[in-house]
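Subject: Predicted fold for Endonuclease/exonuclease/phosphatase domain-containing protein, 102 residues

User T.R. writes:
Posting the sequence so we have a shared reference for the thread.
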Amino acid sequence: DDGRILMVEIMDNNIKTLLIAIYAPNDNQEDFYRKLHMQIIKLDYANICIMGDLNGIIDEKLDYKSQKTTKRTRKILPKSFFRMIDKMNLKDIWRERNMDKK
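User M.O. replies:
I've generated the structure tokens; pasting them so everyone works from the same file.
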């Protein structure tokens, strides 16, 4: 997808992990995350780490310091992102360790 996804397999103590670095587009995110999900499923890894620039937020209250609305709209990630997270049982490790931090 236009060089927006980099996948690397690492092996540590006989455990394979798929590292995925993404730079999500600002537009057509629904399609981008749906395609990403399908690519990951085809590779069939038990251990996956997704990182990068999602170009969106998961939680509007926690992911913004100011609650004031600005000229820029706050971009919540699309449903396809949340479906992927749910179906693959992925976790936001930073958020789990920093539940109330902004």
